[in-house]
Amino acid sequence: MEDNKTKEIKATTEITTPKNVAGAKKFPPRKPGGFKRPGGFRKPGGKKRMPEKPKDDFDQKVLDLARVTRVMAGGKRMKFRATMVIGDKKGKVGIGIAKGADVSIAIQKAVSKARKNIIEVPIIEDTIPHEVHISDHSAKLMMRPARKGSGIKAGGVMRIVLELAGVKDVVAKILGTSNKVNNAKATIKALSSFVPQAVAAAKANTKAQFTPKPIIKSDEKVFKTESKSK
Asked: φ and ψ at 12, to 5 degrees?
């Protein structure tokens, strides 16, 4: 009985096995190295590059960095205060003051404020149009035009503001307090307080100096006629 059962099991296995079945697909052995995509390998640098941001024409400098504390109900709250100056060295300059929990945050806020407070400085032959005296609270300043090639004769905060404004020849003096923030505000006020009539007169004088005189050739004709008569 056992022999008959084993014969029946072998017969069923031979029928079900797909070895002798026609049309059975035979897949090639898989190569080592994993599965490849149908598109092939990616080319280097296939990612899209973001467009570059346009370069900013304004230079920026830090005038003052201070740690400020404020007394609250639960204790003291500490922040940082940044005073920034920006300018393109072509007649535009601005100042900004801002606070932040971090130094970088305070600088970013101050720069954005300075962009909103930009003024235009009238520059004539690399100097200012006329002399200016400013008293803003405790700050007192004096600015005077200088000859070409003399440079910036100023110190402290005024020198930085004048360099970023594009003034190359000037004489300036701080006569009051030594507070950097107040002196920077007073310098901006002085650069924006030029009289428009005086500026126009100074521009007219420079144009008159540089306009070439007309060449008169009538004297040459007279000289030639006199020589022929002789």
From this structure: -65, -40
CA 51, distance to chain mean position in Å, is: 17
Q: How far apart are CA 124 and CA 97, in angstroms?
A: 29
| CATH 3.30.230.10 domain locations along the chain | 132-194
Best CATH choice for the domain 132-194 from the list 3.30.450.20, 3.30.230.10, 3.10.400.10, 3.90.1300.10: 3.30.230.10
Q: Which residue has the tokens 């007219």?
A: 204
Q: pLDDT of 173-185, one tens digit each?
A: 999 999 999 999 9
**pLDDT value, residue 155:** 87
**Rounded Cα distance, 40 and 91, in Å:** 57
For residue 138, what are its two tokens?
């405790």
Helix, strand, or coil (residue 182): helix
* Residue with token string 């100096």: 209
According to CATH, what is the number of the domain 59-120? 3.30.160.20
As a whole number, the mean pLDDT across the chain is 79
